[in-house]
Amino acid sequence: MDTTVFSDIDWNREGKQIGSLRLPYSPDDDAWGVIPFPAASIRHGDGPVVVVSGAVHGDEYEGPMVIAELMRQIRSEQVCGQLILLPALNAPAMRAGRRTSPIDHLNLNRVFPGDHGGAPTEQIAGYVAEHIFARADYYLDLHAGGRTLFIEPSAHVVLADGMDAALARSNAELAEVFGVPITVQTSNMGDYRTSAGYASHKGIPTLAAEMGMGGWVTGDSVGATRDATRRVLKHTGVLPDIDTVPGQATRWTRIDGANAYLFAPFDGYFERRFMLGESIEAGQLAGLMHQLSRPALEPEPVYFQSSGTLYAHGLVGHVRAGQNLAVLVQDVARP
Ligand SMILES: [Zn+2]
């Protein structure tokens, strides 16, 4: 089965087109409707094809804002090659302000390469994999922590063992150019179902980024996302003359195995005893788990299993068994 998704944009046409991807959707109150996903193609002359996506998760707003700004501001004469802008890759989730789609409850970042005959989120992933990534020379995927996560502003690159050396070098260069304080090197645990993991697996130089948190948006978080995105677009050559401001030297880190993740030991209420960015020692107290339905029980201490820098943590006090409480990163040498 070929793609179910269609578009009013002709990806092969020169010039600037603003339109949408359209996913057929026939719910209870609509026989022949579509779900529109805003999109743009700005194509001019020879050069690389660069894809920029936002709102792969619907509660992360800096990426969609910066991509929308590019859609408004960039003129085709400024482009060498093609800029493909996808500001709301999970549009139903973005309209609902949720991480996952309210239609099929799927996480777009766990369904690549998608399925043309699957649920709506799988169908959009299938279109992007076959009809967008198939053209791409570079891919930039802009995330944030969303409503439930605090996270250090950072770049994420796939640098797996056995990876093609030229691709690894291109990915590392993108992170250096992006120029935010932390870069997290990931092997994706062999899981290529994220959009960035899939694109990287297909040999496309790829960078993902986490640029905000808590489901909020600030002038600082949007500004940092704008500046870093423009540096990468200039570096790829697709916008050779765009104005940029210098980035920062990035600190290379990685999430070092399963012990870098701290999980809730049982259903309960977590009293956090650490801060984002704090330096952590293995064995340090992370917090206390309270059982408020059994108030006679003493709260149970939870300890860190490894050392590192506190990179991300959940925001919600009421947690399920197995819910992530914290993520540590460890410094590594520049690749
Ligand atoms: Zn995300």
Largest sheet: 15 strands, mixed
Q: Identify the bound ligands.
A: zinc ion
Order of helices and strands: EEEEHEHHEEEHEHEHEEEEEEEEE
Structural domain count: 2
Helix percentage: 10-25%
List low-pLDDT spans. none
Overall residue-averaged pLDDT value: 95
* Total strands: 19
By CATH, the architecture of the largest domain is named: 3-Layer(aba) Sandwich
The quaternary structure here is single chain
Quickly name the level 1 CATH class of the largest domain: Alpha Beta
Distance between the termini: 41 Å
Descriptors:
single chain, 335 residues, alpha+beta, Aminopeptidase, OB fold (Dihydrolipoamide Acetyltransferase, E2P), 15-stranded mixed beta sheet, globular, binds zinc ion
Describe this structure in words.
The chain is α+β, with helices and mostly antiparallel strands and 335 residues long. The protein folds into two domains: 6-253, Zn peptidases (Aminopeptidase), CATH 3.40.630.10; 255-331, RNA polymerase II/Efflux pump adaptor protein, barrel-sandwich hybrid domain (OB fold (Dihydrolipoamide Acetyltransferase, E2P), Beta Barrel), CATH 2.40.50. The chain contains six helices and 19 strands. The chain has helices at residues 62-73, 91-96, 120-132, 165-178, 195-201, 219-236, and strands spanning 6-7, 15-25, 33-44, 49-54, 81-86, 138-143, 149-151, 154-158, 182-186, 206-210, 251-254, 261-263, 268-272, 279-280, 285-290, 300-303, 308-314, 318-319, 324-331. It has a 15-stranded mixed sheet that branches. The protein has a four-stranded antiparallel sheet with strand order 16-15-13-18, with no helix packed on it. Helix 1 (62-73) packs across helix 6 (219-236). The protein starts with 5 loop residues before the first strand and ends with a strand. The model has no long low-confidence stretch (mean pLDDT 95). The structure holds zinc ion.
